[in-house]
Amino acid sequence: MAEPTPRRNEPRLRPAPLLFEPAEAAGDPEHFFDLESIDDPQALLARATELTQAFRAAADRAVEFQAMAAAQLADPRRFDRLTPAAIAEQAEWTEDYAKKMVEFGQDLLRGDIDGRGHVDPV
């Protein structure tokens, strides 16, 4: 299970680097971050686990950025603010999820998350 994403005042752990694959490798459906070339099951498990943790950390961080952007777009101080319905349509979310993401983003932008652990907007 992925660890909660650290808050602004906590050090962020660095997951394994996600290296871009060469174009010819990306076209090969059997090729995935060179895992198919690892013969040792221990090494394969270790590298696959590193990649899993890196993808989870990247996904968690991306969700936080989505939430902050949603909150900024819904900010009532903006003359061009968007409704939760418009944000939901743009992000391909439900309107209820967009509302929760706006709230989560507002918390992140205020820094009100400390002490509550990872807040999942779902």
Write structural notes for this entry.
- The chain is mostly helical and 122 residues long.
- Helix content is 51%, strand content 0%.
- It is built from 4 helices and no strands.
- The radius of gyration is 18 Å and the shape is elongated.
- The two termini are 17 Å apart.
- The model has no long low-confidence stretch (mean pLDDT 80).
How does the overall form come out from the CA principal axes?
elongated
Average pLDDT, all residues: 80
The largest β sheet comes out as: none
The percent range for strand residues is under 5%
SSE run: HHHH
SS element count, helices? 4
Helix content: 40-55%
Distance between the termini: 17 Å
- What low-confidence regions span 5 or more consecutive residues with pLDDT below 50? none
Structural class: mainly alpha
Number of strands: 0
Rg calculated over all Cα atoms = 18 Å
